[in-house]
Amino acid sequence: MLIKVLAPGYYARQDTKTPVKIGIIAMVSNMGFNFIFAYLYGYVGLAIATSLSALVNAALLYRGLHLDGVYRIKRATIVFVARLIIAVAFMSATVYSLNPSFSEWLASPLWQRGLDLTLLIGAGALSYFAVLLLTGLRPRHLKAGS
Q1: Alpha-carbon gap, residue 92 to 17, rounded angstroms
Q2: What tens digit of pLDDT does each residue of 75-90 get?
Q3: I need a labelling partner for 58 at 20 to 30 A (CA). Which of 22, 77, 118, 139 fits?
Q4: CA atoms of 7 and 27, how far apart (whole Å)
């Protein structure tokens, strides 16, 4: 998604060549990542490679806009993203710690699996939003320009 946000910064300035050049670099890096990660992790490695090449693409697009003085990430954005990362980490730990083993999951009846899944989703959502509140994020921070 970040690529979809950053690329128009070039198109608005009538620069269509730079995003294409960066896209080619990302595509070549994807092939290199595919060789490395597909060998190590099989088909999961292909997903890792695609994610990494998209990260390369977004980083290069941002770097170009930053060097040209077109776009700079504000401190508030970094703090906001840090809060989100902390909340996601805590939510992941909560869900992981409450998640039953796969054999337990398969052995339980369907209604029990549904209830467990509902409670797991609820616990994850509750922990996520609780950590966001504890880190100081408020609904007003979600408005543009805050």
Answers
A1: 40
A2: 988 999 999 999 999 9
A3: 139
A4: 16
